[in-house]
Design a protein that fits this description.
The complex is a heterodimer. In chain A, 36% of the residues lie in helices and 20% in strands. By secondary structure, chain A is of the alpha/beta class. Chain A has 2 domains: 12-121 and 216-232, 3-Layer(aba) Sandwich (Peroxisomal Thiolase, Chain A, domain 1), CATH 3.40.47; 131-212 and 236-388, 3-Layer(aba) Sandwich (Peroxisomal Thiolase, Chain A, domain 1), CATH 3.40.47.10. A 9-stranded mixed β-sheet of chain A has the order 3-2-4-7-1-8-11-10-9, with helices on both faces. In chain A, a hairpin with a 4-residue loop joins strand 10 and strand 11 (379-388). In chain A, helix 7 crosses helix 11 (288-297), helix 7 (165-179) packs across helix 12 (306-312) and helix 11 crosses helix 12. Chain B is α/β, with parallel strands linked by helices. Chain B has 2 domains: 32-162, no CATH class; 170-411, 3-Layer(aba) Sandwich (Rossmann fold). Chain B is built from 11 helices and 15 strands. Chain B has helices at 32-40, 93-98, 157-162, 179-190, 210-213, 229-239, 265-291, 319-339, 369-382, 391-402, 404-411; strands at 44-48, 54-55, 70-74, 78-87, 101-108, 113-118, 127-134, 140-146, 170-173, 195-200, 219-223, 245-248, 302-308, 345-351, 386-389. Chain B has a 7-stranded parallel β-sheet, with helices on both faces. In chain B, helix 5 (210-213) links the parallel strand 10 (195-200) and strand 11. The longest helix of chain B is centred in the last third of the chain and has 27 residues, at 265-291. Chain B is globular. The chains are: A alpha/beta, B alpha/beta. The interface between A and B is large, with 38 and 40 residues. The complex binds zinc ion.
Chain lengths: 392, 413
């Protein structure tokens, strides 16, 4: 069966992108971080807590809580609620669900929020209970923490397409340059390609600067109809198009492409734009090689040309292809499920002209992507969204 | 190619003895289909009864047709290594202490892809042979080896973590008076054991085959009467810290069941020797073995029991003996759980009647003591947990799986 034609997003907007500055370790709970994000949303949007009538939450570390527990915890009375455990694809999935909810008037203002804490031992504890396939067939091999699993994918991808560590490293180095302009990024020192190449190996070919730094933090934004935003006097970005796909290309013996490749045509067609039209791109960068895959699968170049694309472009804020402008997870930090939101929230700031020191000049049209859930041998979940600022 | 494993050097008493750690142990219940196969050295995968597709990891429904009819069946072992990685700083404590650790992703010829531990000689793009091994947590893990034999193949560092190879290890064989004990000593020596201690009760009393044990390089006759708590404890005080593998060859076979015997004196002897002897050995040697489960190349590694297959199904002609063996089997499961934190394997060899004096009246086929000894060595080398030696044992295993009630009726004749 072919997909039926999707209903376009009609006047759906996102507003009030907020980031609670990250901390390497935190003695606070995930609920504390989520609470700070909700509070910041309300303050930023100039609304009352009771104006929020929809809630969508993602977190790895909130224990037995799901969205419903948080409603009581935070004094929210909502008529639409979702909890999305999709790891790095959570933000795009949350946006998609919230957009349809407000479009259908099931809710008027949906708060999409992700937050995680990072206790000294919580990263390992999170790993130990991730999924059944991981428990049965990955962790017993010492491959907890995803480094080894991604190392296998990276090694195969790099060998198949003749990609060198320099090619991949250029992505990480550019993001570090961007991060130096983001006062909240955890990484505060410059990174040269020489330093990248000389870093200690973690799980070949993954080296230290291919890995994100787990941390605590929270990210959030609001989804509503444009008339709601207008009535609140809120600057907002229009949602033009989204895609989401899970367990794509199951017959590929190893992952060399993500689910984006199945739906990328629809992504641009629905938005009515071409890849070249985009002013800023925020990929999901749990490892830079996954970013390189996204350059291909999101249509910026053909499969196998990711390395050439990276060589030919300047990925920094002032470059010809501004990418992961806040430094991405590689340099800003990975705050658990908030890592899924990082690119989208920064992308919203960009097209709203609110990005401050990381602002790309005249950024009007943005793309953010998500990727996640390495359940066994590959990342299962992927998604992307295209959005436009008020200037476009 | 890998370098041959080197004999352990004299221990520096100032260095830390590496304490045992366990690789991740949780598994889904269904996944223990692999544990079961690994215990016997079989390679199985789930196969869909409806569409024939193989699946991995363990599932509850076929990913090709959603049928719930997935059964664990013997599967082709061949595959190709797609990609490898060497984990240098794993987050897991067990692997961190053993890093760098090499794993890979294998495409099996029969379909599924498997994450596997890699033998050092596995090469990307080349064929491999897959097996399930029991790791130091006692659970099944996939292990890929090169398709062709390579030099010093069994000396691979990661392979040795999965097995209990007697090479360079010190072994205690508990009963040197029995033919099985003597054959076991010879086989273990031939397999490269550094020292074989062999227990003999009342060693001043001569016995057949004594000349095979005394005055031999690497064989030390020690005084041991397993039914005597003090004897076991005394020996453990002397050599307990040097026993890497314990082979419990205690045997006490008497015919008869219940009604044709008078009183309990024979049964008491059976219990004293087999069951209480087991307890004495476990209490004397178990704690030190559990402590030394990660102590280098020649860490403590395994405890081997030789049991009658009639531990699993009573043979009325040797009914009380069968019961003593069943008691030992049960005890072995307890011991396995208690040694598990040390990563020490408990292996049970099940045999049919052995070709020795107490089974003289039993018609063939019977198991040659040498076959038992060879099975001990191959079980240690393969890291197995359950081994059926000889035709009778194998047949009883199959009949028990097919219909225990039929087996019970048929053993009564
Ligand atoms: Zn099927």
């Amino acid at each position: 069966m072919t997909n039926s034609l999707r209903t376009p997003y009609d006047g759906i907007v996102m507003a009030a992108p907020v980031t609670i500055p990250y901390a390497r370790y935190s003695i606070e709970s995930a609920q504390w971080w989520i609470g700070r994000a909700l509070s910041a949303l309300v303050a930023r949007a100039g609304i009352r807590v009771s104006d929020i009538d929809g809630l969508c939450v993602s977190s790895f570390t909130m224990g037995n809580d799901s969205g419903i527990g948080l409603t009581q915890h935070f004094g929210l009375c909502v008529r639409w609620l979702d909890t999305i455990p999709l790891g790095g694809a959570s933000a795009i999935a949350a946006l998609r669900k919230a957009a349809r909810a407000v479009q259908a008037h099931d809710a008027d203002i949906v708060a999409c929020v992700a937050g995680d804490t990072n206790h000294v031992d919580s990263f390992r504890q999170t790993l130990e209970s991730f999924s059944r396939f991981n428990q049965d067939a990955v962790y017993p091999y010492g491959a907890g923490g995803a480094n080894a699993s991604f190392a296998l994918i990276a090694r195969n991808y790099m060998r198949t397409f003749g990609v060198t560590r320099e090619d991949v490293g250029k992505i990480a180095v550019a993001q570090r340059a961007n991060a130096l302009r983001n006062p909240h990024a955890l990484m505060k020192t410059p990174l040269t390609i020489e330093q990248y190449l000389a870093a200690r190996p973690i799980s070949d070919p993954i080296h230290l600067f291919d890995c994100v730094m787990p941390c605590a933090g929270a990210e959030a934004f609001l989804v509503m109809r444009d008339e709601t935003a207008a009535s609140l006097g809120l600057p907002a970005a229009r949602l033009l198009s989204t895609i989401e796909r899970h367990n794509a290309f199951a017959d590929d013996p190893m992952q060399v492409r993500g689910g984006w490749a199945m739906d990328v045509g629809e992504l641009y067609a629905m938005a009515g734009v071409k890849p070249d039209d985009l002013d800023i791109v925020q990929t999901y960068d749990d490892y830079p090689v996954i970013t390189m895959m996204q350059f291909e699968d999101l249509g910026f170049c053909n499969k196998g040309e990711g390395a050439a694309f990276v060589r030919q472009h300047d990925l920094t804020i002032d470059g010809d292809f501004p990418h992961n402008t806040s430094g991405g997870q590689l340099s800003a930090g990975q705050a658990g499920a908030a890592g899924a939101y990082l690119g989208l929230v920064e992308g919203l700031r960009q097209v709203l002209g609110e990005a401050g020191p990381t602002q790309v000049k005249n950024a009007k049209l943005g793309l953010a992507a998500g990727f996640g859930m390495i359940n066994y041998d590959r990342g299962l979940a992927s998604g992307a969204a295209i959005f436009a600022g008020p200037a476009r | 190619m890998i370098d041959p494993v080197q004999p352990p050097r004299r221990k520096n008493p100032l260095l830390r003895t590496r304490l045992p750690a366990s690789p991740p142990r949780p598994r889904s219940r269904t996944s223990h289909g692999f544990t079961r196969a690994a215990a016997e050295g079989r390679f199985v995968l789930q196969r869909c009864e409806a569409c024939g597709a193989f699946a991995y990891p363990a599932r509850e429904a076929c990913p090709a047709c959603l049928s719930a009819g997935l059964s664990f069946v013997d599967a082709p072992r061949r595959g190709v290594l797609l990609a490898e990685t060497t984990a240098r700083v794993p987050s897991d404590v067990y692997f961190r202490e053993r890093a760098p650790w090499r794993i890979g992703l294998v495409k099996m010829d029969c379909g599924p892809t498997m994450v596997a531990h890699l033998h050092a000689d596995c090469v990307e793009g080349a064929p491999i042979v897959m097996s399930f091994q029991l790791d130091k947590s006692g659970q099944a893990v996939a292990f890929a080896r090169p398709e062709e034999e390579t030099p010093n193949m069994a000396d691979d560092r990661q392979w040795r973590e999965m097995t209990a190879d007697p090479k360079f290890r010190r072994v205690l064989v508990t009963n040197g008076r029995s033919v099985i004990g003597q054959e076991a000593v010879a086989a273990l020596k031939a397999a490269g054991a550094k020292t074989v201690f062999v227990g003999v009760a009342e060693p001043w009393r001569p016995f057949a085959g004594e000349q095979l044990l005394r005055g031999q390089q690497g064989i030390e006759v020690v005084t041991l009467d397993v039914s005597d708590e003090k004897s076991a404890a005394d020996l453990a005080a002397d050599i307990g810290g040097k026993v890497d593998i314990l082979v419990n060859t205690t045997e006490y076979v008497r015919p008869g069941g219940l009604l044709d015997r008078r009183g309990t004196s024979i049964a008491r002897d059976e219990i004293d020797q087999a069951y209480l002897g087991f307890i004495n050995l476990a209490q004397a040697f178990g704690p030190a073995m559990r402590m030394r489960g990660a102590d280098g190349v020649s860490s403590s590694a395994a405890w081997v029991n030789i049991l009658s297959v009639h531990a699993l199904a009573n043979w009325p002609a040797f009914g009380a003996y069968s019961a003593s063996q069943a008691a030992c089997l049960s005890l072995s499961h307890c011991l396995r759980a208690e040694l598990r934190p040390g990563g020490v394997k408990v292996m049970n060899l099940f045999t049919g009647p052995v070709d020795t004096e107490w089974f003289q009246t039993v018609p063939p086929p019977k198991v040659a003591p040498r076959a038992v000894a060879q099975a001990i060595v191959s079980a240690l080398r393969g890291g197995l947990e359950e081994i059926y030696v000889g035709d009778v044992a194998e047949e009883i295993r199959q009949r028990l799986a097919a219909n225990p009630k039929a087996l019970e009726r048929e053993l009564d004749k």
